[in-house]
């Protein structure tokens, strides 16, 4: 509930335009973020997750489809 509430409140507080997929993304984050080693989200959700330090709190590495994020993921997987 904490993650879901925080991400939903961020949309409302900053008057961000919400699209139907945002609710799905928030639900995915609320369920998956706390149990995942790696989490994939759109860039806006990734930045929001990092802004509230949820990635640090749940020790999850968050990636998006942006080039620098993909490169970081590639480096991470190469080191395994």
Structure characterization notes:
The protein is mainly α and about 80 residues long. About 60% of the residues lie in helices and about 10% in strands. A two-stranded parallel sheet has the order 1-2.
pLDDT < 50 runs, ≥5 residues: none
Annotation, overall tally of beta strands:
2
Helix content: 55-70%
Give the CA-CA distance, first to last residue.
Answer: 33 Å
One letter per element, helices H and strands E, the order comes to HHEHHEH
Q: Output mean pLDDT.
A: 94
In short:
By secondary structure, the chain is mainly α. Helices cover 62% and strands 8% of the residues.
Write the layout of secondary structure elements.
Layout: H1 2-13, H2 20-32, E1 38-40, H3 43-51, H4 54-57, E2 61-63, H5 67-78
Parallel strand pairs: 1-2
Helix pairs in contact: 1-2
Q: What descriptive keywords fit this protein?
A:
80 residues; mainly alpha; two-stranded parallel sheet; 5 helices; 2 strands; 62% helix; 8% strand; globular
